Structure to design on (199 residues):
């Protein structure tokens, strides 16, 4: 990213020197100056950096927040309580199901941090998405400002050309009028005045 490429646009569009711009702003200015794209697939870039633990946390969170998990858990709880209250003569976890409470507490103790890890990772991805959206919006604004500048410049050039042409025509007409006065009234002028009727 060359300083000379972004120095002038930084002053023109941000009103600041290139050294004071953030990394995102410098990237966008450089891309706009070189006519490069700033859009990229954040999901693909982010998925390529995932560790095994992060992928596992995502799968656990995905399953833990699904209807399949809720239904399976409800069936397991119904079987556990049904076996220990009705079906077995000697229940292995009699009412009030202390062993079941221990298992549920351990499951919650393990599952909650795993889901939080997944949520933290998704929050980090959301921050990347927001930064990427900012870069794209900034580049779009810069491109629009550049188009406005070009249109204003074209309009100024067209107006200047029209004024120059108008001045040439005025000079030409002025010259023709001078020539007409220096020649005096001609037969056409006399004929016109003769044919006019008085009011």
């Amino acid at each position: 990213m060359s300083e000379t490429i972004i120095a002038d646009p930084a002053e023109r569009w941000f009103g600041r020197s290139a050294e004071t711009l953030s990394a995102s702003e410098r990237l966008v200015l450089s891309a706009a100056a070189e006519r490069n794209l700033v859009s990229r697939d954040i999901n693909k870039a982010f998925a390529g950096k995932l560790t095994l633990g992060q992928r596992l946390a995502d799968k656990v969170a995905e399953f833990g927040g699904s209807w399949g998990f809720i239904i399976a858990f409800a069936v397991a709880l119904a079987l556990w309580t049904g076996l220990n209250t009705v079906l077995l003569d000697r229940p292995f976890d009699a009412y009030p199901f202390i062993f079941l409470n221990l298992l549920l507490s351990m499951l919650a103790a393990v599952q909650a941090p795993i889901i939080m890890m997944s949520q933290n990772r998704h929050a980090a991805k959301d921050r990347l998405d927001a930064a990427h959206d900012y870069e794209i919006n900034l580049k779009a604004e810069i491109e629009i400002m550049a188009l406005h500048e070009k249109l204003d410049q074209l309009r100024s050039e067209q107006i200047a050309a029209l004024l120059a042409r108008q001045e040439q025509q005025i000079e030409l007409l002025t010259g023709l009028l001078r020539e007409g006065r220096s020649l005096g009234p001609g037969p056409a002028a006399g004929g016109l005045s003769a044919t006019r009727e008085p009011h």
Notes: Residues 40 and 57 are 25 Å apart (CA to CA). DSSP finds seven helices and no strands in the chain.
